[in-house]
Task: structure prediction
Amino acid sequence: MAQTLPCPQCKRPVGLAGTSRPATFPFCSGRCRTLDLGAWADGRHVIAGKTLFPEPDDGDDADR
Ligand SMILES: [Zn+2]
Result:
């Protein structure tokens, strides 16, 4: 069964696990990721020098 989270940018459901999880997770698409990063670049989010979102690592037990 597909678990989803709303995309932080556009609120579309984004698949969480396995093949339904996009490379752009937690965003539904590169466009949304770019938009969110743009928000950071605009200074609407201010944490200089930090990773914006940690890369999804392999710490979960998804099927790979
Ligand atoms: Zn989105």
Observations:
- The radius of gyration is 13 Å.
- Residues 4-41 form one domain.
- Residues 7, 9-10, 12, 27-29, 32 surround zinc ion (CB under 6 Å).
- The helical segments are 30-41.
